[in-house]
Write a structure and sequence with these properties.
The complex is a heterodimer of chains A (728) and B (60). By secondary structure, chain A is of the alpha+beta class. Chain A contains 25 helices and 28 strands. Chain A folds into six domains: 80 residues, 2-Layer Sandwich (Alpha-Beta Plaits); 129 residues; 92 residues, Calcium-transporting ATPase, cytoplasmic transduction domain A (Distorted Sandwich); 135 residues, no CATH class; 129 residues, HAD superfamily/HAD-like (Rossmann fold, 3-Layer(aba) Sandwich), CATH 3.40.50.1000; 101 residues, Calcium-transporting ATPase, cytoplasmic domain N, CATH 3.40.1110. In chain A, the strands form five sheets. Chain A has a seven-stranded mixed β-sheet with strand order 1-8-7-9-15-10-13, with no helix packed on it. Chain A has a seven-stranded mixed β-sheet with strand order 16-28-27-26-17-24-25, with helices on both faces. A six-stranded antiparallel β-sheet of chain A has the order 18-23-22-21-20-19. In chain A, strand 2 and strand 3 form a beta hairpin. Classes of the chains: A alpha+beta (728), B mainly alpha (60). At the A-B interface, helix 1, helix 3 and helix 4 of A face helix 1, helix 2 and helix 3 of B.
């Protein structure tokens, strides 16, 4: 049967006679990779553009229409040593790119205006204490107005819009005092200029916008980069399926191009990408990612299969009932929605700070105006002082305090293999005091490993490994890996659902089910781990039993100890059988565990802990964990997790070790500490500055210097978030 | 002081030129990949287009 791959789904037209595709590439780190990929791809005839984006690890390719197949690029990249996969930009990501560009445009305009207004302000400040003529000062003030007013109108849009939205919903946010401050300062400055006053506040207003835009851009950029890389990883997991395009021809197509009613082929060792019903074939299915159950389920005609389950032994034909978006059990989705709604009530640190901040600042400014009028000043002087108070308390340090720390901390976490899905995940993770682990795929590795290799003679085991290379079966893959086998036995024959056999030097060797190798008696005798699966190997009359199981993550024990050392409670909630969970809990020294729990049970347990005032960190990978990931205070998933779980988790970690869980907690605690410190710095600055402003002696120079000083201090403090994690 | 009439507009024009250059570079996608741009500066020059065509021919 001929198998083809069809990625035309991803190809787009790019101008006359040109076609375009975006590929997500794994393993691009440096300039060397960039040059190698670009040269390698541009050397292909008819390629007109090959450009690597190192920030989001993607390659954009254009070629002459109809000359090349996207597969050839993927093959070429594989030759160069990179794994690639076609990538479709999610619409949310495209919106974010647009938003980020708009912020950068606003920042450019604001920075330009700040520089030029400052250039005009400095002569005014120095002129005020020496010999400047009032006409010259007015000229400079008018020029400043000419620059600052249109610039503020453009660059202030992100704040004005958000403030307006908040006000029309009858709430308030950080942007409300910012907008009021900027508009009042500009309006007051125009009035002052008309009245030939010594001071105008154009410089302060526009500089405030510049600093705030820096913070806003950093904040946005952090989330955007992580989302882009996470999107790549999802694409690289290559969610494809073999679809029957004709009764006897299959084509490997992306899940996005499969529709209900299609028929797909599910070969042994393949993970199912769709929901459907088996219409032909017999096999065993590993549903551990969905239910947490490690024992295989038998599949035959009429058995429903779900996306995320692995076909173990035989080949199946499956009629698709739901694909791509709709692959989930209705109950999981419903639980998930409910849980997500509950979580959105969490308030970020910045919002909490601004909720306190806005009324205080406005009250201070208002009291200043009233106070001055009460003590006999003119309305004009009183309002000028009031505006000075608003400007000097401008929340630019406050606006930078959180995003700068988030950006630095997320960068540092990224380097340690943790991706953040949301900015406030840091704040929530830092508060976590109880961790719930799922077992299968989280505490244990998603892949199988051989347990009893030492009990088998080395040469026999090596032979078994070589034979295993001929099979697709995941257990065989584990045997081959453990034996370090490289060269397959060419004459090997696979018998579906049974095993592989071959003849070497006139002796028949077999690897597969105990019955296939005639080794049932050995299995009966050997008292094996309840979790393990067993395969047998026979060579002539010799019989061996190989026991295979999902091993614990290499550093799981150390991580649990490290968590306990940090006074964080640890427990296991697993959908797997009791025997399997007990073994893992005992090996890891975890006292609290529950087995055989359903998704609803997991949520109930989390709610119970919540009611006791605990902040739960849920770590899980299965589709059955997705609702509880959403229900927990904060959640993490390994990168091997089901798609839905990854999208739901606040943080995703890469690689085999479990250590990123502790590293992320350490980083986020340090980051939260720095965020709080930054807020106190900003508030402390206001405590110093506000009395000076209220007293009416503040000049724009002092205000501008104080404001910039506090902002820079906050940014420098944020850089300390880079080195937080202690080694475990 | 009349010099201001020349210098101030000149300074503003320079500033605006800078702003225009920034907006152009933003539009042409030069800020899309800052990590890559940092490395490209030290990478070897790519072969010129005609040379590239030769290479492609040679490969064939």
């Amino acid at each position: 049967m001929q198998v083809t791959r069809d990625f035309s789904h991803y190809v787009k037209a790019a101008g006359p006679g040109l076609q375009h595709i975006d590929l997500a590439v794994e393993g691009v780190h440096c300039a060397g990779c960039m040059a190698k990929i670009e040269r390698g791809l541009s050397a292909m005839p008819d390629v007109t553009l090959a450009r690597v984006n190192l920030t989001n690890r993607r390659v954009a390719l254009e070629w002459k229409e109809g000359t090349l197949d996207p597969i050839s690029f993927i093959d070429r990249l594989a030759e160069l040593g990179y794994k690639a996969y076609p990538f479709e930009t999610a619409s949310a990501e495209a919106t974010e790119v647009e938003e980020s560009r708009f912020l950068l445009r606003c920042l450019g305009v604001a920075a330009f205006a700040t520089m030029n207004v400052m250039m005009l302000s400095i002569p005014v400040w120095s002129g005020n204490v020496s010999d400047m003529l009032p006409e010259q000062r007015d000229f400079f003030h008018w020029l400043s107005a000419l620059i600052a007013l249109p610039a503020a109108a453009y660059a202030g849009q992100p704040f004005f819009r958000s403030a307006w939205r908040a006000l029309s919903n009858k709430t308030t946010n950080m942007d409300v005092p910012i907008s009021i401050g900027v508009i009042l300062a500009l309006g007051m400055s125009v009035v002052e200029t008309i009245h030939h006053a010594e001071h105008a506040y154009f410089d302060a207003a526009i500089m405030l916008l510049t600093f705030l835009l820096v913070g806003r851009f950093l904040d946005q950029n952090m989330r955007r980069r992580t989302r882009a890389v996470a999107g790549n990883l999802a694409a690289l997991k290559a969610e494809t399926a073999a679809k029957f395009v004709r009764p006897d021809e299959v084509s490997q197509v992306p899940v996005g191009a499969i529709h209900p009613g299609d028929i797909v082929l599910l070969r042994p060792g393949e993970r199912c990408a769709v929901d459907g019903t088996v219409i032909e074939g017999r096999s065993e299915i590993d549903q551990s990612l969905i239910t947490g159950e490690t024992l295989y389920v038998t599949a035959e005609q009429g058995t429903p299969v779900y996306a995320g389950s692995m076909n173990v032994s035989g080949t199946l034909r499956v009629r698709v009932s739901a694909a791509s978006e709709a692959t989930l059990l209705a109950e999981i989705t419903r639980l998930l929605d409910n849980a997500l709604q509950a979580r959105s009530r969490y308030m970020r640190l910045a919002d909490r700070a601004s909720r306190l901040y806005a009324p205080v600042v406005h009250a201070a400014a208002l009291l200043t105006v009233l106070g001055w009028v009460f003590w006999g000043a003119s309305w004009h002087d009183a309002i000028v002082t009031g505006v000075a108070v608003l400007i000097i308390t401008c929340p630019c340090a406050l606006g930078l305090a959180i995003p700068t720390v988030q950006t630095v901390a997320s960068g540092a976490m990224f380097k340690s293999g943790v991706l953040l899905n949301s900015g406030d995940a840091i704040e929530r993770l830092a508060e976590a005091d109880h961790v719930i682990f799922d077992k299968t795929g989280t505490l244990t590795l998603p892949d199988l490993e051989v347990v009893n290799a030492s009990g088998i003679p080395a040469d026999i085991f090596k032979l078994a490994g070589q034979l295993a290379l001929s099979s697709h079966h995941p257990v065989a893959a584990a045997v081959a890996l453990a034996a370090g086998a490289k060269s397959p036995i060419l004459s090997a024959v696979e018998e579906a659902g049974q095993g592989v056999r071959a003849t070497v030097d006139g002796v028949e060797i077999r690897l597969g089910r105990p019955s296939f190798c005639g080794a049932e008696h050995l299995v009966m005798d050997a008292e094996l781990d309840p979790e393990a699966s067993v395969v047998a190997f026979s060579k002539g009359a010799e019989r061996f039993v190989i026991s295979v199981r999902q091993g614990l993550r290499p550093d799981a024990k150390a991580v649990i100890a490290a968590l306990q050392a940090r006074k964080i409670g640890v427990e296991i909630l697993s959908g797997d059988r009791e025997a399997a969970v007990t073994a893992a809990a005992r090996a890891l020294g975890i006292v609290e565990w529950r087995a055989g729990v359903t998704p609803a049970d997991k949520i109930a347990r989390i709610e119970e802990l919540k009611a006791r005032g605990m902040k739960v960190l849920m770590v899980g990978d299965g589709m059955n964990d997705a609702p509880s990931l959403a229900a927990a205070h904060v959640s993490m998933s390994p990168i091997s997790a089901a798609h839905l779980s990854q999208a739901t988790a606040d943080l995703v970690f890469l690689g085999k070790p479990l250590a990123p869980v502790v590293v992320a907690i350490d980083f986020s605690r340090k980051a939260l500490h720095l965020m709080r410190q930054n807020l106190w710095l900003a508030i402390g600055y206001n405590f110093l500055a506000v009395p000076i402003a209220i007293s009416g002696i503040v000049t724009p120079l002092i205000a501008a210097a104080a404001m910039s000083g506090s902002s820079i201090l906050v940014m420098l403090n944020a850089l300390r978030a880079r080195n937080a994690a202690r080694r475990i | 002081m009349e010099i201001l009439v020349i210098l101030v507009p000149l300074a503003l024009a320079l500033g605006l030129t800078g702003l225009a250059a920034f907006l152009w570079s933003l539009r042409s996608g030069q800020y899309d990949d800052l990590d890559g741009a940092a490395w490209r500066a030290i990478a070897d020059d790519e072969p010129p287009p005609e040379r590239k065509a030769d290479l492609a021919q040679a490969k064939r």
